[in-house]
Design a protein that fits this description.
This protein is α+β, with helices and mostly antiparallel strands and 427 residues long. The protein has eleven helices and 13 strands.
Amino acid sequence: MSRLKLVLAAATVASLSIVAAMSYAVRPGLASDHQDTLRAVAKPGADITDMYVFPAKDPRDVVFALDVHPLVPRGLAATASFDPGVLYQIKIDTVGDYREHVVLQFKAEGAGTKQRIVFSGPVAAIPGTISTMLGKPLGTTTYGVPVALPGGIRLFAGPRKDPFYFDLTQFFKIDPDRNFSYHPKADVPPASATCFRTPGIDYFASFNVLSIVVEMPRATLTNARNHGRINVWATTSVSQPTAPGVWRQIERWGRPAVKEALEPFALHAKTNHAEPYDDPTLAGAIFATMRAPKPVGAGRSAATANALVRVLVPDEMQVNLAATGHATYLGVETKGLSGLPTAVNRVVPDAGLKGLKSSLRNGARQFGGRDPDSPVIDISLGAIYGSTIAKIGLAHDDHAETACLTSDGTKPSHATLDGFPYLPEPL
């Protein structure tokens, strides 16, 4: 699906805002988690696109970045604002039982560039999909202005260039079900492509998002019980008109591309309305998609499908705050082996990887999380359609790989900042 190119010359800020809203509603997009359900499309301020957890410039600190409000066109970043009717939360398991024990909460007040974003946390969480504002606010920031808060915490909330990169147009041709514009109709068209193109075209290269970025000392979330190991996911919740101060969850994000690649669109809402440790559909959907014959599914063995379920469920990003080095997507879950280059996975036999696997099992490669440059799509596609699961020793090779689906052929189109707030400047 192509996107309307907006050519805007002399126009008022008000008219630009209208065009931005129309662009979002009329031209759908879907990727890491962009426009994940029809309800998210109707309320873009509650639409989570991505989350990142990575080491800060100061190695004693960690960065959490939550992106929402997708597909803000080039030149219109200043016209978008956070939704005051949404409670944004980053939930953290600091015990190891995959339940939320600590939460970071954010809520916008006002509108436009004069918005203020209130931040509370880290504060003890109340488990479940119904939330209230917890604890006394730690501080506030003005839209687009970084601020230092007590406890060595820094906060930013404002527009950024979308750092996610993916050949979405080709993906829709390969898997039309993931394009929400066909729903709730039953006439999903047949696939018009069976492979990604080379090179790929990054659909998101010209779009912005709204980002909430928090930097804090790692020690804040480290205790004797977890030894630095935490599990992280994000949610958005909407206020309940009949129950002031009560917020009901409508979207959940744990890992990039999991729902989008492995769960039918019709099931996304059930997953979004559930906690990751009590999700009624995701594990079964992953297994079914992996097992379904090609081209509808990945056509993989039961052992490969089960191995991927074990890696991805519960849908929470795993992080080791005690580790050094950079973020490596799925690094904790695979003991650092997710960082193997795609070319190595493709050509080196299992036996030849033993020494390499041993050398990679070290703390520097096991921070986990994800930074804006992490090749999460290639890692995900390699696990679904390639030999990654076999190469890292999670299941025997089923020899059912589809080589042309193991990479979308795109690279980052952004330049991250050397320091806070790290995410690239808006376009």
